[in-house]
Amino acid sequence: MFRLLTAVLILASGLAVAVGAKAETQEVNIYSARHYDTDLELYDRFTEQTGISVNLIEGGSDELIARLEREGKQSPADILVTVDAGRLWRAEEKGLFSPVRSEVLESRIPAHLRHPEGLWFGLSKRARIIIYNKEMGRPEKLETYDDLADPVHKGEICMRSSSNIYNISLLASLIEHEGQEAAENWAKGVMANLAQQPQGNDTSNIKAVAAGECRISVVNTYYIGRMLGSDDAADVAVAEKVGLIFPNQNDRGTHVNISGAGVMKYAPNRENAIKFIEFLTGDWAQNAFTQLNHEYTAVPGAMKTSPVKGTGPFKEDAINASALGENQAEAVRIFDRAGWQ
Description:
alpha/beta, ten-stranded mixed sheet
């Protein structure tokens, strides 16, 4: 279906194929923590339009960041692509990115979805929303993230581990808006309302809510979109059993996080790297994120259809995504003090 990439280098089980040391003028080397086959279509289209071949290494975010640190000036990487602003911040703290000035990127990507100094740019979005069991009915007093800590929901909530970057970033946003003391009270309140110990992932928590094992959970929208758009009737049936709440619509808006990319400090193909990130902000690429992987577009007005069936526009939290990284360490400490494993 897709043209063969010049090289697809996959990090798996500690095995890797090394990229050739010599940089070519018509290639771009991408280290990506996005593990979606649908992204191959983006690479293919970029090569068709520009003649620039894509060389790809895939791995976990922390694994790729550690690899880039080891490689240093000898790294062949031009771009790091990862999910969650917290992980972009980790790479930023290691000094891995080089600032980029681009009229295309600065005009198309809203300021709150890119680094203030151009170290990285958000390319797609996921909203972290509240879900509930439809059969049990929509819970009362559940319009905001703060409401999750209300004792009225005691014994009703399923959540994943505090070590999960999505939860860390959500708490980091609460720190930014409400301060450390309020954020800690929230974490303790949610812990007191859990139906079971923190566990699983977003998909398993969707299934737990659908099965009535708990009434409420917090998940990223793209997991719901994926299940609703699945060819597996069982997945669709599960997703249809949960209702969706986009929190804080009457004040700051729903927390969103991003997939994003930055150009490496020692990129051998810097101009090609900038061209690739600019390509990903075009309308075709933006809608590919929506249609192929159920994400929201980062570029306002680019999205043709909602990535989650049955939902429309919503008010999103407009704090700069860099705050999610800056507050990350404090969020981890708060989770630890709250006993959130």
